[in-house]
Amino acid sequence: MSSPHRYGSEQRGVRQREAPGWRGLRFARELLVGFIGLGLGLAALSAAADSVADGALDSAARGTDNSADGVLDGAAQGTDSSTDGTNLDSAADGVPSPVIGHTPREDAPRVLGARWEHDEAMPPPPPPVSHYTIDARLDEGTQKVTATARLRWKNTSQAQVTALFFHLYLNAFKHDRTLFLRSPYGAGRSGGGAADYGHIQVTRLTAREHPGVDLWQGAAPHSPGDPDDETDIEVPLPAPVPPGAELHLELAWEAKLPRLVERTGTSGDYFLVAQWFPKLARLEPDGRFRHFAFHPHAEFYADFSHYDVTLDVPAAAQVGASGQQIHEEIHGDRRRLRFQIEHAIDFAWTAWPGFLRREEQISGVRVHLLYPPGHTKNADDTLEAVRFGLAHFGRRYGAYPYPTLTVVHPPRHAARSGGMEYPSFITTGGRWSAGYVSRQVPAVTLHELAHQWFYGLVATDEPQWPFLDEGLTSYAELLAMSERYGDASLLRLPGLSVSQRAALRRVAAEYGRDGAIARPAADFSSFRSLGALVYARTATALDTLAAVYGREAMDAALARYARYYRYRHPGPPQLIAAIRETMGDDAARNLSLVLFERGSIDYRVRAIEPGSDGSTARVVVYRDGQLELPVEISLIAADGSETLERWSGRGASRELHFRGDSPLVQVVVDPRGLIGLDEQPLNNVVRLAPHGTPRVRERLTYAAQLALELLSP
Amino acid sequence: MTALTERDDARGAETARAAPRHEPSAASDVGAAAARDDVSWMSDAGAADTLRDAGSAHWDGERPVLGRGVVSGAVSPLRRPGALVLVYLGRLIGGWVIAAPLVAAIASSSVGQLPQGDAALFEPGGERLLQVLHQGGLALTAAARESAALTLLFSALGVYLHGVWLFCLGHAGRLGLPRALAAAATALPRLLGSSAVGLVGAALVIALGAGCDRALAGYLALRFDEQRADLIRLAVIVVWLAPLFLLGLLTALTRAAIVQRGLGLFAALKLAARSLRARPVAHGVARASALVWSAAAMGLAALLVGELALERPGALRVAAAWGLHQAAVLVTLLLHGGWLRHTLNAVSGGAPAPHGHASQQGEGSP
Questions:
Q1: Total domain count for chain B?
Q2: Is A668 domain-assigned?
Q3: Which of A40, A49, A681 is the closest to B137 by Cβ?
Q4: Residue A9 has pLDDT above 70, yes or no
Q5: Are A412 and B228 in contact (CB < 8 Å)?
Q6: pLDDT tens sequence across A636-648
Q7: How far is the C-alpha of B4 from the C-alpha of B16, rounded, in Å?
Q8: In this complex, which of B95, B141, B315 lies closest to A708 when CB atoms are compared?
């Protein structure tokens, strides 16, 4: 039995905001399940049809003659255009987007080499950019974290640095005028609005190199056109820091935690403490910081650092944190724990007296699972998913490098902290009964675990290119869930199983025309749109390319990409180059089209035109959309014989002339269903004498009879 | 006398004490015994007052009497195959018509063009199923609305067929279909009224229960872990289902009283309430057993149909699925008929008819 107030924390009045209905990283799964629910309920498909209809109109209005060069140029321009700090307008009224900094200028070698498919190729991690040594005390009554830190930072760029940029993410919840809270979309990713305020107040910032100067006196918010937002702070330095030189900073601050919002904050005596310290923005190789205000759609971006964190918490609290616990001592009713993690881009922790704990050594990693009482089944499922996932992802994308992994299953009242990733620390979610009725727990666990690679180790710019972490993670999750659960990776009912792949494809098709995938998070009109495009459409695009050009080639591309760019910060060009290396120019061009140009595809066949002699026929297969994907066309004769034709997909149509011993009765484009991006797969078939629908008739009649049995007396 | 003795056992000593005034003169005359027992029960339960107060045609000024052809021990649904077929056909035609808009919408989505036909919708992974649901879009939504409206219409029609069935089950001897249809038509407004009373009552119970559950959830969350709190809530919800269940019993008994006794709605409600109060366990067990066995039949059908692999081609598979599902529907209807027979016996005062009783009543079609 647990009590939510064992610290005796004070409850304050809350301010309720309208919830947007989308919840964090569980978005994709909710979308999929929701989609199926809608479909099965047949209640909201009109919106889907509208979307498809709009998409069809868009498709008809658009040309299909994009050249490969043009696309690649477009991709490159899309990358470079953001290097000048353009202030991109948000599609949302009244929500100016933050300043989008520049994109990393990592080199994109054309050839990585097959050796990067093996862990032996990976060099040791580069020296960290910064060292955080933090001493923090949690006051459970005031829900504040008071901390001091020593921060050693090195200018790893090729230019001198005249100012530092800190992200104070908790200030997104400081008042109603922040970019985050004034958004009409509520709390964005985590669903529901902020119910309480939170903030970070830095009280001191000094540098050994500049004695006697409180650098924070010169600190100022740096969000052009957005003076009320204090999540992006510029701190001018008294003297430039030359390339290769270090700064030794000391900070003191107080973080007031809000009620749980955006996967951070408090719920009773539960604490999920994330984005809780002044965090240096990433310094790009050209000497410019990548800094931005905290937008509801966006996540984070940082350099690799070493963290040495001492936490002073109530003795009753069960604590989990990024990294390895190396020390623990108890003083009266307080407990001090010290954690260390190297080569990590963030540090988060949790404390709750109600947690039960399990520990297990899995693939050389010490796994700590913190879960609420009553969640035994979820705990079993989580550990099983971790056992599978560590091996699966490690084999594909390189071994998990940290000695520990902490998995947190929040209690129900803190569900808003579920479904989030931090280095060596992930949160999952689900009711205690979830494991009995759905795949939610393994799916969330595998998704967040995959983030250890595509976010934690390949540390892409999440606000700028959300598809690079969420899209690749969704694809990794799709592969893992498919391998683990097959055709029932999403749902299994008597007589009905639904795969995650099928659901992702429909979501990707439904929202495919909303806009480009590859764009900053703040540019998406809604988080629903972001979720569908960034999660579902990216995963479906990669899955389609793998099916069409070869799964081994796609596996090799991502294996090389993930290992080569470990501890680095690649952008889209690096991913596309890796695809090109193993899958060819066509695959890379098609990927660029999907990512940057709303590239789509719809094969269709209208009719079979029988010849006069009965044994010949003419068939025209059309291709709509910019993507040119090779496709198979199956021609089936009346005697059951099948002829398989192949079309490169180039051109708007392909005319086929059939001649056989028996009349042609059926044409099927893409008979194996490889092209998941195909917007309307049902127009891929034509048959001279269509089948009836006896199964549908039987099943629906029976269902109606049962309904009458329920509703009639 | 065996039947009477068993009935007395069930009803308790008080009924047994009241019974001698109406002791049957011939033990072999089960129907007469039942009728007399009916009167004894009326005296015991006070339902006779209800009939008298209501000015029922079944009240002769001193004691309730049964109308012509009305038996106190209703007949088994198997003894009224015509009525059973009528109700089944109503369900079948209703189901067919209700499904028609959705079937048409799905058929228009090119499913028939697929090499496997609509077997593709049952393939593992659900790829084609989701495609159809997605691309069906507006057509499916409109069809679903049509089907929903048709479901309501056929539910109302079901009340009428229910009345016909009740009338048939409650009568001995030959019974022409026109007479049964006419009788049910006469009772239809009252039957619909009883349904409305049931629905309103259920809505109130659910609304009250939802409010209490919300408060309970908050209370439990402070004191128990999630699993225990949910299980306690579940237990409370199950208990809370009891009023709904009782309401269902009351409504069913009311309908039986309307048809069997020709009572007005409120008189029938009063009689049903008295019957329910007198024998709640017997009624509950009868209804619950019918529901449980119905669920078992449907579950078994689902399991067997699941084994048919409908994702594979073959008309025989579809035919087998059809047969299994319709068998489940028939079993469910038979069980429902058994429950109706029980309600008729309850409001007429007779116990469920013993085996062989129907033949002694000279039952015939329908």
A1: 1
A2: yes
A3: A49
A4: no
A5: no
A6: 999 999 999 999 9
A7: 9
A8: B95
